[in-house]
Amino acid sequence: MKDENEVTGTNETEDTLTNRQGHPVTNNQNVRTVGNRGPTTLENYDFLEKISHFDRERIPERVVHARGAGAHGYFESYGMVGDEPVSKYTRAKVFQEKGKQTPVFVRFSSVVHGGHSPETLRDPRGFAVKFYTEDGNWDLVGNNLKIFFIRDPLKFPDLVHAFKPDPVTNIQDGERIFDFVSNTPEATHMVTFLFSPWGIPANYRMMQGSGVNTYKWVNKEGEGFLVKYHWEPKQGIKNLTQEEADEIQSKNFNHATQDLYEAIENGNYPEWELFVQILSDDDHPELDYDPLDPTKLWYKDDVPWQAVGKMVLNKNPENYYAEVEQAAFGTGVLVDGLDFSDDKLLQGRTFSYSDTQRYRVGTNYLQLPINSPKKHVATNQRDGQMEYKVDQGKNQNPHVNYEPSTIGGLKEAENPGREHTPNVEGELKRETIDRTNNFGQAGETYRRLSDFERDELIKNLVNTLAPCRKEIRDQMIENFTQADPEYGKRVADGIEAKMKEMESAESGPIGTTKTEEAVQDAQDK
Ligand code: HEM
Questions:
Q1: Given ligand 1 and candidates 229, 295, 352, 359, which is best to mutate, with the most ligand atoms within 8 Å of its CB?
Q2: Fewer CB within a 10 Å sphere, N or C end of the chain?
Q3: HEC-encoded secondary structure of 144-195
Q4: Which residues participate in heme binding (predicted)?
């Protein structure tokens, strides 16, 4: 049999340029024309193939988290959670034996702006990990900060619209951001982190990660536990002040990607330890917040962090587009022993990720090497755009792409343990949760910041709020006051001083546009 890679044709070597049909390209400098001045002719297949492929080089970028960097590595399990065997809480194979290694791919990102935006912006950072486990893929799609702006997924598109550039001016506008935030009291806690130095991590290697949402662990008996995940960088944590970020941005707007890439190229492999917090699977009425509320921290004093493994990133991608851009993570991607909690935000996310990926990457996005599990896959799913591999299992009757069947085909797997069967009962309704406590933890976080971090927080808030209209400023001051009276007072005093400064300098808003003016402008047209 002929080797399929064997080079054919006269004078052709492995380095010979061909088109995608395998035709050797003999002239890559000139299109085919009538005479050497043109016009060009339309049957020029090499040119048409080259230019039309180029025309399609971009897929839509991620609607959020468009700017990112990725790396490969492995996760190593400790086999224990604290002093106890991990099997007491979960049967997930990835955690069982001490020293067991599982390959991972990680993508870090910033959230609001586009694919080539500066990496110095005040913005949460994404921390998405794909574990290629022996039971199939597990994605832990987290952020650097441990909480989120909202708890109801219905609000996510509005949140993102407010933070993205103004649809008229295409400029991010602090007034639009705080217009939304001031009317969304549960966001006060996240904003307290975001406008402190924690809102600008120095790079990707020196930041924490968190699953944010509450998940579940399930053991062999089918018993469930509430769990939160946290990544702690062994490199230490480093954040930037606004001035430090501005300084870096004036010289390099790719600094975080570069830092990660160069560290790995130089063999300086970044590592994170994975911690979990575990609670029994119930409502926890003793807490003044709901344990499923993603706007809340589970304080370490109440629920200890327990190490369960570590992750090392030791290989850069070979092709940014194929691996990083086309990577698709989702909160629905869990393996046996890991489960969802009733956290509404988590359930909303779980629909959104694979939905956007079918649109962004394509129906068969799971066939791409970066997304495909590194284990046996056999399904009756067929066809669709870009189908190239029929996952039907070895020795299967190729006529049977359905199940059940007596004449061949795939069979259901056995359940590896008792099913986790939570009992859910209640009226179907649209209502906020009971224990909202929107300001308590925001105040506590304000008080727990260091003096320096608190000063930075106030300064950053004042600079962004001062140019906003009065109703928005007043509502934000009210929200901060509810969190902590000193917090509200410092923001109010700061705004007053800043406005005097602005008036005397007769300067306009700093770093923001006025929505009011833009709307007026648009109406005038
Ligand atoms: C990316 C939706 C909340 C972390 C995305 C994407 C969507 C999305 C549509 C783009 C995915 C893609 O194109 O592949 C949502 C919705 C949310 C939500 C609907 C709330 C209802 C969160 C939260 C976190 C988070 C709370 C942090 C725990 C991420 C990360 C990415 C991402 C890290 C980038 C993944 C990557 O690197 O490809 N989100 N998100 N999101 N989201 Fe969310």
A1: 352
A2: N
A3: CCCCCCCCCHHHHHHHHHHHCCCCCCCCCCHHHHHHHHHCCHHHHHHHHHHC
A4: 353
